[in-house]
Design a protein that fits this description.
The protein has 489 residues and is an alpha/beta fold. A six-stranded parallel sheet has the order 12-10-8-13-14-15, sandwiched between helices. The protein has two domains: 225 residues, Glycogen Phosphorylase B (Rossmann fold), CATH 3.40.50; 175 residues, Rossmann fold (3-Layer(aba) Sandwich), CATH 3.40.50.2000. Bound molecules: uridine-5'-diphosphate-xylopyranose. Uridine-5'-diphosphate-xylopyranose (UDX) binds next to helix 2, helix 15 and helix 16.
Length: 489
């Protein structure tokens, strides 16, 4: 590319919320934009950047893009390791107090650092960073929000929250969590009260989570565009309604598959490497050889993502359920994810014996590769959106035990709309776990496998070269960034 051409390339600032899932997605989007020649600065806060550098090759990997650079800003968080989701409010408060003013200063001055002279022409912040949309509007810099939570939750529990409050549906009147929610276009007869994001169960509308969500519902439609990690078929019920509020939506999912496909196409001549880790914990790859020893579709894969924590009681219920099902299991137990201690020597012998014979427990796994492994028959998941998409792509049915935010909506859609699994929300004990495993792996295995395979095929179609809806939306996003950048310059 000649000098003049390079200088006229847009300069996008990507600013993810500092958690594993969003940073992983944002890095994939950054690489896709770099491949198209766009200049990208990836703004990370210190809290997440440190473990990212510790456990990945991200620096050397992005070194091959002269049009990419990392910038970091403080976030006031002292923790050495990534924190769990119960500290979400602490993280958001720290970002508002420390990172937001620094971000504003960067945008006003037009200089991200002494090393970066090129002015930002488009901002792509996480959808939860309302302040980034407001600052972009104030300075006439186009903003395209990137929502890494599920569109079904974004629509039902975030963008519709003002309407639910207005209609008197939230806060709930009475205790019946099974009552159907009426005021969410596209999701009538699907959602019960219990399936909305859990903050909808609060009675106090001044709660910080509700207030932040209401602000998000106001600011997201003000951005010039909205990027979603989904594909058109998957959210066909909701996307037309969402487009009434946010006309310029780019569905570019499954992002990890689209990323892999583009990288494969690009690196055919140069490097064969297309699988990289963006994990902020060290991956234990030994579980892949453990999986190799098992026949197809026999193993239960258990992981509750990067933020959820379980109590010892919950851990034991799940553990007994797994053991009583008699199936082999691979279980990710992220360091620090069990609250309260337990005495290993006091564990019932049936748990110890079964786990020694048929279990594999690791701190962190290469999840995309695990789900792609033929031995995995079901995913016992917290229904985080990335995990859900990764399971859909590989055609693996799910047993869902949601903890918070979008996971409550996702698990409902998994069972009721996409028919690729069972939702255990609000009723997870050893009997239910055992029954759900037998149901998905034995009793109704054919039905779940057929349905999961169908969605896996549709997800592949969405990223097919030229005609796939997500492929075309990514190209449109890149074209629009160029057009928007011209107006900023
Ligand atoms: C959080 C929220 O909980 C989720 O609901 C929201 O959609 C995004 O932010 P998280 O707990 O990180 O997500 O779950 P998820 O979105 O599923 O992301 C977890 C990521 O970590 C996945 O990409 C998964 O592949 C990866 N992972 C998980 C690993 O690489 N190894 C593991 O052992 C476990």
């Amino acid at each position: 590319m000649d000098q003049n051409h390079q200088e006229n390339e847009p300069h996008v600032l990507i600013f993810p919320i500092p958690f594993q899932g969003p940073v992983n997605c944002a890095l994939k989007l950054a690489e896709l934009l770099c491949l198209s020649g766009i200049h990208v600065t990836f703004l990370n806060t210190h809290h997440i950047h440190r473990p990212l550098l510790r456990h990945t090759q991200v620096l050397s990997r992005f070194n091959r893009y002269p049009n990419f650079r990392f910038e970091t800003i403080p976030d006031g968080l002292e923790h050495e390791n990534p924190v769990s989701g119960d500290r979400f409010e602490e993280v958001m408060d720290a970002i508002n107090a420390v990172s937001k003013p620094l971000f504003q200063e960067m945008m006003v001055s037009g200089h991200l650092s002494s090393k970066s002279e090129r002015p930002v022409t488009v901002i792509i912040p996480d959808g939860v960073f309302n302040f980034a949309v407001e600052i972009g509007l104030e300075l006439s810099i186009p903003v395209i929000s990137f929502e890494t939570i599920s569109p079904c939750s974004l629509w039902t529990s975030n963008l519709n929250l003002p309407a639910l409050i207005e209609a008197g549906e939230v806060p709930f009147k009475g205790n019946d969590l099974d009552e159907l929610v009426k005021n969410v276009p596209g999701a009538q007869n699907i959602l019960r009260r219990r399936d909305l994001a859990p903050y909808c169960r609060l009675s106090d509308l001044s709660d910080p989570e509700i207030q932040r969500t209401l602000r998000e519902a106001r600011t997201i439609p003000l951005a010039q565009g909205l990027i979603l990690n989904t594909f058109e078929h998957l959210d066909v019920l909701l996307l037309p309604h969402m487009r009434n509020l946010c006309p310029n939506i780019y569905t570019i999912g499954p992002l990890h598959s689209l990323h892999k496909a583009r990288l494969t196409a690009d690196t055919e001549q140069s490097s064969p490497e297309t699988t990289f880790s963006n994990s902020v914990w060290e991956e234990d790859r030994s579980c892949l050889s453990w999986l190799d020893k098992h026949p197809p579709k026999t193993v239960v894969y258990v992981s509750f993502g990067s933020l959820s924590s379980t109590t010892v009681n919950q851990l034991l219920e799940i553990w007994h359920g797994l053991v009583n099902s008699g199936k082999p299991f691979l279980w990710v137990r992220r360091p620090g994810s069990i609250t309260g201690g337990y005495d290993q020597t006091q564990l019932p012998s049936e748990l110890i014996d079964h786990t020694a014979r048929m279990g594999c427990i690791v701190d962190w796994a290469p999840q995309e590769e695990v789900l792609a492994h033929q031995a995995v028959g079901v995913f016992l998941t917290h229904s985080g959106w990335n995990s859900t998409m990764e399971s859909i792509v590989e055609g693996v049915p799910m047993i869902c035990w949601p903890f918070y935010v979008d996971q409550f909506v996702n698990s409902r859609f998994v069972e009721e709309v996409w028919k690729v699994g069972i939702d255990m929300k609000d009723k997870c004990d050893m009997v239910i776990v055992e029954k759900a495993i037998r149901d998905v792996m034995d009793v109704r295995q054919d039905m779940f496998t057929r349905s999961a395979r169908c969605w896996a095929n549709l997800s592949k179609e969405s990223i097919s070269e030229d005609t796939g809806s997500s492929t075309r939306n990514l190209d449109r996003l890149i074209d629009d960034i160029r057009v928007m950048s011209r107006s900023t310059r």
